[in-house]
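Hey L., structure's done. Input below.
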Amino acid sequence: MEKVLLVSGSPKKEGNTMRVMEKCATVLTAQGLEAEIISLAGRKIEACIACAKCVGTGVCVLDDGLNEIADKVRAAKGFIIGSPVYFGTARGDLMNLLQRVGMLSYNNDKFLSWKVGGPIAVNRRGGATATIQEMLMFFFINEMIVPGSTYWNILFGKKPGEAMEDEEGVRTAERFAENVGKLIEKLA
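Output:
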């Protein structure tokens, strides 16, 4: 069974971003795929220190749980990330994760190439498209495949659960997850 790894970049374990990841996971499992969600809540993913010690080893020397996440990304066919929008950008620890996973892939076996996935942003009011673009750079520079949806992968809401009231946003995220699953099936 093909697997999709979903990462919630929210510091809130039960916040809007996690709920969107759960919606996407439900869609993927209905398509016969395995879906695993990792929450960054309670984790402290550090920034890459550019030591280059991962070159040729595929292992990051920073001991903060990133290597275990990278191994799960490596084994998955799909990779979906979600971030709340803080001051018009994605959460820093999620970007730290993406940059370090990217370095592991780029400097070793290019394990990200041809994985299917993409980003989802959850925000109160503004900055969502800039956040989506920021996260998309990771997917594109790593030769990943990002399917579209019926709109940008954006949901609006602040209080936990409020984004689930954004009907168009929920439909967009669900359709995106469906398209990720369909594309994985077609590439298999």
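The chain has one domain: 3-187. The mean pLDDT is 97.

-- N.
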